[in-house]
Design a protein that fits this description.
- The protein is an alpha/beta fold and about 500 residues long.
- The chain is built from 18 helices and 8 strands.
- The strands form 2 sheets. Strands 2-3-4-1-5 form a 5-stranded parallel β-sheet.
- Helix 7 links the parallel strand 3 and strand 4.
- Helix 13 packs across helix 17 and helix 14 packs antiparallel against helix 15.
- It is elongated, with a radius of gyration of 31 Å.
- About 5% of the residues have low confidence.
Amino acid sequence: MNKYLELMVGVGLGLIVYLVWSGVDLTPLLLLAAAGGALFLLTQGRLGHNFETIGNQSVIKTVTGVNFEDIGGQEMAKRELLEALDFVSRQDQIKKLGIRPLKGILLTGPPGTGKTLLAKAAANYTDSVFVSSSGSEFVEMYAGVGAQRIRQLFAKARNLAVKAGKQSAIVFIDELEVIAGKRGSHSSHLEYDQTLNQLLVEMDGIRPNEAVKILVIAATNRPDLLDAAILRPGRFDRQVKVELPDKEGRIHILKIHAKGKPLAAEVDLEEVAKDTFGFSGAHLESLINEAAILAFRKGSKQITMAEIREAIDKVIMGEKLDRRPEPNELKRVAAHEAGHALISELLRPGSVATVTVTPRGKALGFMRQTQAQEQFLYTKDYLQDQIAICLGGAMAEELIYGNLSTGSANDFEQAASIAGQIIKTGLSELGIVDQNLTSKDKIAAAMEQILNEQKERVKKLLAPKAELIELISANLLEKEKIPGAWLREQLKCA
């Protein structure tokens, strides 16, 4: 083959020399050849990139520097992952028991919960080469590019392991749903299906007796979109759920990110964890970082609870806005937020963290709740109370001003959504229903009944509290933000 190639190159060069000697202008021919070569490299995913980068993919250095001790709030996920990784690091023992090594581990969970960090820690734990890529980097408009890059990714993992003198490599694919979605769902673009087919072939080709052991770790927050072929045993043998951290997990994460930061003695991370229900690890990292930035702006040498509370509001709602409502609008906003806070405290004592009329994001003001304990199941009473809290702002406006405003639109949407949840879960008077078989009129009537009952309930609770609403509103207008403790003191005196 090499002889024929050399012969062709020699003939080609001889032809070019003859044409130049004959006075033929070769510029159009050279331009055409350059364009053809560029097109070939582009379709192979190599134009502007070398084999080290595999298209646009980043090849991470062999030592990630991330340990499992650096990851907080995911103890269950870490235990499951460590058990699976022992099959990679303890080859001699698993051979004696006849255990087939795992080929793939799928990490599923919401964004920001630490799936990528877990994969990096896995590489460090098993002393493996770590090659990382994202699903979006495999698919382009040119046919075959995705499949080619899949082949290159696995080849690069093996080559890097050999160069580094390691016996194993971890291939990490983020956003797996992009290339492993259900086949046939991309009717206008078969490139997705070809890329998935190549990934299946590569995973099937992983053998336990290879010189370099390959383990595929993938991450997705949409496991429902994945093709059944990728999930079957023998490909992704383990699915590890990486969920939002509970209170203890949030404390652990906060301690990790607070290392090296000068926290004031008054800072209570347990209280911060209590106030950040539903935060992911990424949110908590951003919270501590934003608090440090706020302290820097103030010229403070320590991070206090004031900066942390301000950072919580910023992470939830966004940065403060320069625009300010007109005085009359601001009074209405204050009454609205006072209504939310009063209903929340009356139905769930101790639930209000702060109330503010500082505009953030799309909100002119908001009431932030705290949660005494983690809750994963909700009763009908709990959901009804939540609807009442949503309606508290609008009913306070009606009580003080005699009418409503457009500021309640989002509250009404939330209330209707919770009412729909009551119906869907069989907690309404309709009982257990199938929303596809039950008439829309019945569902609408049941929803209207739930919302009207809570509306009347809120009116009765707020009717004797008009003076207190005025007092809370006045303090909000003066101070912009009031803590839940001050509100509870006023309720005791009322």
